[in-house]
Amino acid sequence: MNGREIVNAIHTARTIARFETKPLMLGHIETVLGVWREFDESLKKTAKLTAQTEEKTGRLSIVRRSSIIEEESDGFKS
Q1: Would you say residue 58 has pLDDT above 90?
Q2: Structural domain count, the chain
Q3: Which of 4, 24, 45, 69 gives 20 to 30 Å between its CA and that of 51?
């Protein structure tokens, strides 16, 4: 996770705590991080399946330019 993602996770956990009218607890943060991990794994699986489909069919798939899994110019994935 980068700094922006950490800040967003804390804000989301804080929002959940407010909705439950409870103080922010570690459990709230753990819940948000669990969902984040599941989402990240889902994106990785989708990217892998897309790459496999391209190899088998020879067809290019459409990837949004604003995709959070697109590779940046410096070689890092965002």
Answers
A1: no
A2: 1
A3: 4
